[in-house]
Specification:
Structural class: alpha+beta
Strand order of the largest sheet: 3-4-6-5
Strand content: 5-15%
Helix content: 55-70%
Radius of gyration: 22 Å
Order of helices and strands: HEEEEHEEHH
Shape: elongated
Number of helices: 4
Distance between the termini: 51 Å
Number of strands: 6
């Protein structure tokens, strides 16, 4: 019963970290990154489909993505989905492939992106701490119901605190790497 609390907390905390990594992967850092297109869904024959399932995405240059659709009829739909997205980039279409050229980021835009990265990191830390609080509540409830001894309660709370501390360090590391990537010219 007690290990269930620990496993559940670990699972939820790791999901929080992976969500943060996905969100940060979708931030434009002046470099072309195929992950930027992961969230964009294309209306392909009536069903929303991720771009990476409609074609091959390559990075021929550091600031360019090329999408080679497997079905040429999907190119206009892919182009429309990219234009509607929050990327802020106009796709160039030559009938066979779609090219996305990413402009250099201005210093002001880089600073805005760093603020966004820090905000997302802080939101993740808050989520991790909320999971810790929920887990500690479950442990206290189990102690009240005489399912745990006082020593087991203390040991579990310490384990959850250590896990929380480790994952917050991970978040700090992830944020620092992303900031460095954004600020490097």
């Amino acid at each position: 019963m007690a290990t269930d609390v620990m496993d559940f907390a670990k699972e939820r905390m790791n999901k929080t970290i992976s969500v943060l990594q996905q969100e940060l992967g979708g931030l434009r850092a002046g470099r072309a990154n195929p992950q930027l297109l992961d969230r964009i869904l294309v209306d392909y024959y009536g069903s929303p489909t991720p771009i990476n399932q409609l074609g091959n995405i390559s990075v021929p240059e550091p600031r360019m993505l090329v999408i080679a659709a497997w079905d040429n009829k999907a190119i206009p739909a892919i182009e429309k989905a990219i234009q509607k997205s929050e990327l802020g980039i106009n796709p160039a279409n030559d009938g066979k492939v779609i090219r996305l050229v990413f402009p250099e980021l201005t210093e002001e835009r880089r600073k805005e992106l760093v603020k966004v990265v820090r905000k997302k990191g802080e939101e993740s830390k808050v989520a991790i701490r909320a999971i810790r609080r929920d887990s500690n509540e479950q442990i206290k409830t189990q102690k009240k119901d005489n399912l745990l001894t006082e020593d087991d309660q203390k040991r579990l709370e310490e384990k959850i605190q250590k896990l929380t501390d480790d994952l917050i360090k991970d978040i700090d590391r992830i944020i620092a790497e992303k900031e460095k990537e954004i600020l490097s010219v």
